[in-house]
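We both want to read discrete structure tokens more fluently, so let's practise on a single case. Would you supply a protein for us yourself, any chain you care to pick? Would you write everything just below, so we can both look at the same thing?
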Amino acid sequence: MVVADARGRVTYVNPAVSRLLGYEPADLLGRDLTEIMPPRFRSGHGGHITRFLTTGEGELVGNTTQLPAMHVDGHEVSIDVTLARVEPYPGAPAEEAAVVGVLRDASTTILLERQLQVSRYLAATLRVTAALTEAPDADVAFHQLLPTLCTELDWDAALLWQADTERGRLVHTGTWSAADADVSALAEDAPRRHFRRGEGLPGRAWKLRVPVVVDDLPSDPTVVRKDAVRADGLSTGVAFPVLRGDTVLAVCELFSTESRPVPPELLDVLAHAGRQIGQFLDRLRAESHVRELADTLQRSLLPSHLPIIPGLQLAARYSPGADAALVGGDTYDVMPLADGRWMVLIADVCGTGPEAAAVTAVTRHTARAAAAAGGPAEILAAVNAALLHQQGDAPLRFVTACCLVLEPVATGHRATLSIAGHPLPVLRCADGSATEVGTAERPLGIDVDVRWSETGLDLPPGSTLVLYTDGVTEARDDAGRQFGEDALLRVVAGAPLDAEATVGAVAAAVEQQLAGSRHEHDDLAVLAVTVPR
């Protein structure tokens, strides 16, 4: 507690000043009250105190103000100051008035406020990261970054610059502004501009690899977009790099129309966020690259198109499973034989990934090589031998398959089929009924001494034969209920007499089954052969 007279001279100070500022009470008696302030504050606050003493008015009245004070050893101490004016007794001259000041150590309060602010910054960056996790690829994540970052950290506008390392420059990739902020000049300028290392605010962040602040954009000599900055009334700007290791992937700029402090804590959080976002975007890009490779490999395991068979309609549909980054094990194929017959194959390899893709390739290509030698049972036997030879001591990867050979007959077409552990095909007859056909026997790739039987099947005009993998019937809704064979029979029975319409109806029914489901779904393949009327 400090008491000063009308001239601002200290007349009393209690011993607590020793703990706060290091002075002995006697050392301050008779000295000007403003001497405990840093020199840069003395003239301004001295005038405030004089006005307060003479008139009892001013911004110091009734408020607690946070100010720096000078410790006796020369360093500054943050204090909270509360002042009150003591009026002179009635009839006494005005110069008898005094001021009573209460000084408190503000360092604990400041520390708590900074910790609270850091917590807010960290929470904001966590929400940004959480929002980015919903992005399917890096490009979408980049576009989601700006609005989320600005909204969470309460900035008016943001620009994103992506590093073009081949040309050694930053290229504009996005602008965002709050609903009540007009940054039209900056937005119009950005697409025409690029930055070299060290050039402008984003170029400096690129070069230094740390966040960079400009407190007064219109007057700062390093700012190269002054016309746009002044037109939009921008005051404070900060740029931080998005990093993968030491490589700058992008630079994000944040702008405020009001002058605002950018404390070191915010810069630390932005630097950390830049590295987190960079790692996340790098992972998204890697996953996107893996998905592209998987998609290319998957397409190589399926025919690019189905052939045209006189007197028949063919249609097929493939849908990847829940883990689109991995290659599925479903495949199908249709190929001509030398005597006018056609082989049709559908197969499902246990598992996913490169190993499953290798087994799928062996299955498909072995079936093609063996198709000229005999019927479907011989084709499956050849595939079985090839799989057992390839596996050796590797983990077991069995294959289910349905193979049929089609040939034209006087009454339409005839199919001879063999089934190795695969779901039974569905035959839609001319009367609209649908039934399962064939006999399921042992899968491929398990035993060497297995033989498969053959089933003959007439396909008259008005009939459709549907082959599919278990991703169709095992698709589960949110309650865990499978689509099942009965539902498939109803869909096939109700489909038009058209191969494309049939596979479309099956795919749509499965998609409806999976809508909103929490359960992962397998990849699926459907192939339909229709004999038109």
Notes: The chain has a mean pLDDT of 84. The first helix runs from residue 17 to 21.
